[in-house]
Amino acid sequence: MVMPDDAPVKLIQIGLKGGEKQDGFNLVTERVVSVNPEAKQLEVELLAYDGKTVVLDVADEALEDLKKLKAGDGATIRVVEEGGKRIAKSFRIRAKDPNAAKADAMLLDLKDPHWLNRKYAAEVLGELKDERAVDPLVAALTDDVGDVRQRAYDSLIKLGGISVTSLIPLLVSEEDEIRQSATEIIRKIGKPAVEPLATALTDADDRLKTRILKVLDRMGYKPKTRVDTGAELPKLT
User: Which of 22, 66, 68, 161 lies in the 20 to 30 Å Cα band around 147?
Assistant: First the structure.
């Protein structure tokens, strides 16, 4: 297991009562990234280290517990030193946020063959306000069923500013309905959409830049200076 050099892990003594003590520590992770029982390895995210991930080798006696873990789970992992290596010896899965679990289910249902399931999923994802739903909901704006498209439209508005960056490319869509939907959603999001729109101006091509400026103008925001390719981010009034 490789840890950041500038933040060494403090080891503590842990072990079974009455048994031989071993150097080790309890590693708490909010998110399991991947599980590989065949390779006897586990990858976890370390929030305390700005989301960096580490791969742990897993002891034979912990393989059955390893198989119970899933990507996205939170877990407490007992890690000990053996032969100069740090080995995961046991796992305790922590209960997942029920809203996150529901969002997981809705993200799957958004791809379901039955349109009623997609419609319901698109609606619920807006209520849950899970930012993982942004790109799937943007994709649902092109669903074959109008009711699904409408629910995706409404939910992207509910998600607010976090939706805007993914919607901006649709402002130059060849499909009139998609282009219009993206424009309306951004305008209805309102003030939280202004900053991501202004930021997008710096890297936009001329066609997209024109569309962004038109949307900003309709929202009542105008750059104080002329926007050129490579120019500094405009100040908006």
Answer: 161
Q: Is the pTM of this model over 0.85?
A: no
Q: Which of 64, 57, 71 is nearest to 27 (CA)?
A: 57
Q: What is the pLDDT along the chain (237 residues), one digit of tens a residue?
A: 444 444 433 333 334 444 454 457 888 887 899 999 999 999 998 866 777 888 999 999 999 999 988 888 888 898 888 887 889 999 888 777 788 888 988 999 999 999 999 999 999 999 999 999 999 999 999 999 999 999 999 999 999 999 999 999 999 999 999 999 999 999 999 999 999 999 999 999 999 999 999 999 999 887 654 444 444 444 554
Residue with tokens 């958004």: 110
Q: What gap in Å lies between CA 215 and CA 217, rounded to an integer?
A: 5
